[in-house]
From TrEMBL:
Residues 121-261 form the tRNA/rRNA methyltransferase SpoU type domain. Keywords: Methyltransferase, Transferase. PANTHER family: RRNA METHYLASE (PTHR43191:SF12), RRNA METHYLTRANSFERASE 3 (PTHR43191). GO terms for biological process: methylation; RNA processing. InterPro entries: Alpha/beta_knot_MTases, Ribosomal_eL30-like_sf, rRNA_Methyltransferase, SpoU_MeTrfase, tRNA_m1G_MTases_N. The keyword Methyltransferase applies. The keyword Secreted does not apply. This is RNA methyltransferase. GO terms for molecular function: RNA binding; RNA methyltransferase activity. It comes from the Bacteria.
């Protein structure tokens, strides 16, 4: 059972994990920080508590901690309760969601083990926007994608904004970084995946004809603007496009991903 601890002083060292989250060089989830995972809001905190990420502590107003009474009864972590103004001064801004939790990172899955137990995989190349990453992971969780590979140029999906936008589903979908696209293709080929690169190019196969619901398929997604690199396009078994109305040349990458993930479930 969680231990509820009253916090009345802003400088209480027991809440240092939550301190000054608005200041970039103090953020524990930023490069150079302590690598902590930060969850915001009752729903996301509950998903963190149910995830493989080792929770360190919580900080929230009493009403929000009361809403988490059931999941907190099953964990042995400190739950710090504070008035809203004290919490705001610790965090560095007023948090409408009223509760935060921090956790250490879970071990990164072994790539071969991850691919061996998966069938539907998304490969991200150059996805640097944290909101797009969060949306992608939420879509992946909703539409049955088993794993995500983070190729070159992709940002950390455990950045606070990504966790928030994903509604905590980034904590549910397993992912692994891969250093190069050549390593991505080597691993996918070794495990029998067919690879499909998503692109708006007119010579690509229309989505309805791409048969993405085959056994063991990996869809490649590139950044908005430049899209996938020539290396990624050339290395894929096929290129696939989402047909669009005249005058529209592309979709947001998270939206494109959702359409492709839906097709991977046989619903194109």
């Amino acid at each position: 059972m969680a231990t509820v601890i009253e916090v009345t002083e802003v400088d209480d060292p027991r809440v240092d994990d939550f301190r000054d989250l608005a200041t970039a060089d103090r953020r524990p989830d930023r490069p150079g920080g302590r690598g902590l995972v930060i969850a915001e809001g009752v729903v996301v905190v509950e998903r963190l508590l149910a995830s493989p990420y080792p929770v360190r502590s919580l900080l929230g107003v009493r009403r929000r901690l009361d809403a988490l009474a059931e999941p907190l009864a099953a964990v042995d972590v400190p739950a710090h309760v504070a008035e809203a103004d004290v919490m705001a001064r610790v965090v560095g801004f007023h948090l409408n969601r009223g509760v935060l939790a921090v956790a250490d990172r879970a071990p990164v899955p072994d790539l071969d083990v991850l691919l061996a137990r998966s069938k539907r995989v998304a490969v991200l190349e150059g996805i640097g926007d944290h909101e797009n990453l969060g949306s992608l992971f939420r879509n992946a969780a909703a539409l049955g994608v088993d794993a995500i590979l983070l190729g070159p140029g992709s940002s950390d999906p455990l950045y606070r904004r990504s966790v928030r936008v994903s509604m905590g589903h980034v904590l549910r979908v397993p992912f692994a970084p891969v250093e190069s696209m050549s390593a991505v293709f080597e691993a996918l080929t070794a495990h029998g995946y067919r690879t499909a690169a998503l692109t708006p190019r007119p010579n690509a196969v229309p989505l309805r004809e791409a048969e993405l619901d085959d056994d063991k398929v990996a869809v490649l997604l590139g950044s908005e603007g430049p899209g996938l690199t020539e290396e990624a396009l050339a290395g894929a078994d096929t290129t696939v496009r989402i047909p669009m109305a005249d005058g529209v040349d592309s979709l947001n990458v998270a939206t494109s991903a959702a359409v492709a993930f839906h097709a991977m479930n046989g619903a194109a």
